[in-house]
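Standup notes
- DV: blocked on the single-chain target, sequence here:
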Amino acid sequence: MEECPDRQRLDKWLWFARLAHTRSAAARLVCEGHVRVNGQRVERAAKAVQPGDVLTIALPLDPRLLRIVAIGARRGPFEQARQLYEDIGAGPERRAPPGAR
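- DV (later): unblocked, structure below
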């Protein structure tokens, strides 16, 4: 099965964006119902996401509201992963890029 270049599996995107330590942890987060895409609860790790989708993620001690900006090509360093999303649920202190304060 060929992946569409403007879409990506949710578990894979979460892993590339460094919101989960492993891809299986990302899949577990989705399957346990801790992720919403555009307000709809998702329970399938294979759910396709694309730029513009809004994710609500109930991470332990840190709920996040993120807008997908780009699809990942690989799991890179934090600076590269941070470019995959915009944090829209936080104050200006969290939105600022690292080192910009």
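- Follow-up: Residues 56 and 65 are 5 Å apart (CA to CA).
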